[in-house]
Write a structure and sequence with these properties.
By secondary structure, the protein is of the alpha+beta class. It has 13 helices and 21 strands. Helix 1 packs parallel to helix 5, helix 1 runs parallel beside helix 13 and helix 9 packs antiparallel against helix 12. The protein binds dihydroflavine-adenine dinucleotide. It comes from Variovorax ginsengisoli.
């Protein structure tokens, strides 16, 4: 069987690319080894799919993305904008609303976006084979009378195509069909990889080191969190959540994409508050216990835990030494702790790293191997939390489809 294009992976990027290529008149086959389409869209955003972000600055979109080559994503993201995806949603009558920091969600279930993408594929006469695995992918060189082509041996037979788009995503959430297929294909054709790692993921701490904080599980509070050296420093102001094994919540998921193993995080539990000054002032006017005064600045569970660690702090604030209060303020405003790892791909929203952008065109997503393209999460481009990863899926799919 012959097609102009085979797209492997019917997730966000694969569906969108297949639909647009089909609507441009190409004969497109879309293959996925799962029996369901776009499972990650379905579960995303708590079932309401945070499908894009209005705050993405199309003149400098790289600000919201992590990559060895931060500028790579600019071309695709500036040529297919959040507004264009919003217009597509509007044409399909899918109601949506804005939440925190430009994040756009469906009013109804995420399935509406899947249905929209399937309708777009239908409009492009895309043929879809699911479930269907790809056992082998090879490039068959041409001769004087015939051009070369890709030959795919699939569970449903052999297929020839002039071009192949790999949209098989990353390694996160293996139970939803994630595989390393894309990385293996890249290596097969001599393309480089940036080592994949879990990102947008909760961070864990060694049992002993975490024991004093495990009782705080369930506590959520706004923080400023930072990591990196002076040159690479990255920080976020978001909510943090204590868990039994470590830290989670948007602040931690965001910083996890920048965190390097063995390095500490610095957390300010009272951002915008001069904790040292507030405690000194309390010392001058109050006879309450330190934990009670601290509870005016941070949640009382946190205040109790921090004060409980030091016998010198278990007393009325007017009896505390200035040194003890300064040290306490430092531990509230600049708490340093070093994670021992992450919760891994089981819990990671995305995979950072992937196909090295040095071997891809930023205009078309075509690789150094002519006719072979990589789009979406399989590429070394990882967005912040908040709809940026779907926007990369749409934009990279669009750039590729326009070039096929
Ligand atoms: P995606 O993973 O969507 O699709 C890959 C497809 O390839 C899958 O259908 C898979 O079955 C298929 N496949 C894999 N291996 C294959 C093989 N060997 N053969 C054939 N097919 C194969 N992002 C965001 O912007 N907003 C949000 O709200 C969320 N929320 C969210 C929640 C959760 C729980 C997760 C895990 C992730 C998110 N994300 C997100 C991230 C977002 O889901 C992700 O970045 C995109 O789905 C990536 O789109 P892709 O199409 O590249 O991969």
């Amino acid at each position: 069987m012959n097609f102009d294009v085979v797209v492997i992976g019917a997730g966000a990027a694969g569906l969108f690319c297949a639909a647009q290529a089909g609507q441009r008149g190409l004969r497109v086959l879309l293959i996925d080894h799962s029996d369901r389409v776009a499972e990650k869209i379905r579960i995303s955003g708590g079932g309401r799919c945070n499908f894009t972000n209005r705050d993405l600055d199309v003149r400098a979109p790289q600000k919201h993305f992590v990559s060895e080559n931060p500028n790579f994503c600019r071309s695709a993201l500036s040529r297919y904008t959040p507004q264009q995806f919003i217009e597509l949603m509007d044409r399909h009558g899918i109601a949506h609303h804005e939440k925190h920091k430009g994040q756009l969600f469906c009013d109804g279930p995420s399935q509406q976006i899947i249905d929209m993408l399937l309708a777009e594929c239908h409009a492009g006469n895309v043929e879809r084979w699911q479930p269907c695995g790809v056992k082998r992918l090879a490039f068959e060189a041409g001769n004087d009378t015939q051009a070369g082509c890709y030959r795919l041996e699939t569970d449903r037979g052999t297929v020839d195509a002039a071009q192949v788009v790999v949209a098989t995503g990353g390694l996160s959430i293996p139970q939803l069909g994630a595989s390393d297929f894309g990385y293996r294909v890249a290596q097969q054709f001599g393309l480089r990889l940036v080592a994949p790692r879990p990102a947008l993921v909760p961070l864990t701490f060694a049992g002993q080191a975490w024991a004093p904080y495990a009782s705080l599980a369930g506590l959520a509070l706004p923080v400023q969190i930072e990591t990196g050296s002076k040159k690479t420093r990255m920080h976020f102001m978001e909510d943090l959540l204590f868990t039994h094994r470590g830290l989670s919540g948007p602040a931690v998921l965001q910083i996890s994409s920048y965190w390097q193993e063995g390095t500490p995080l610095t957390i300010d539990f009272a951002p915008g508050v001069e904790v040292s000054e507030a405690l000194s002032a309390a010392k001058a006017r109050s006879r309450k216990r330190i934990a009670n005064e601290l509870a005016m600045l941070v949640p009382s569970r946190l205040a109790d835990a921090w004060v409980g660690e030091d016998p010198a702090l278990q007393r009325p604030i007017n009896e505390a030494t200035d040194r003890a209060l300064t040290q306490l303020a430092e531990r509230i405003a600049r708490w340093q702790i070093t994670p021992d790892g992450t919760e891994g791909y089981k819990k990671a929203e995305v995979t950072a790293g992937g196909v090295d952008t040095r071997d891809l065109s930023s205009q078309t997503l075509e690789s150094k191997q002519p006719g072979l393209y990589f789009i979406g999460e399989v590429v070394d481009v990882t967005g912040w939390l908040g709809g940026y990863n779907f926007q990369w899926a749409w934009a990279s799919a669009h750039a590729c489809a326009m070039a096929l």
